[in-house]
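Quick question, first post here. What does this chain look like in 3D?
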Amino acid sequence: MRRRLTPVSAILLTLAAIGLVAMLIDRPIDLIIPAVVFGIVFLLYKFPPGRSRREYRPPRPSARERRKTGAAFRRKSAPFKVIEGGRDDDEDRPRYH
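> Answer (accepted):
Ran it through. Tokens below.
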């Protein structure tokens, strides 16, 4: 389903874009500093500094891959047992209490 832009949100987005362009032309430092700080925080979140110092460990194979590489995969037979139940089927009793 296609989302349509309502007139109110179109007006708000247009005014926000005009305000950003006017701010960039009039006082660019007021827009550049928050953008740089946001970019640094985003990069630190995406690539944490502690990750590069650790030694590289190859990822462990999944359980499915381990089964394929190991001995032939055999499925255990589950010893299910049917237990006969003794239920009284009285017709005069109501089904739900």
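The chain is about 45% helix and 0% strand.
The mean pLDDT is 79.
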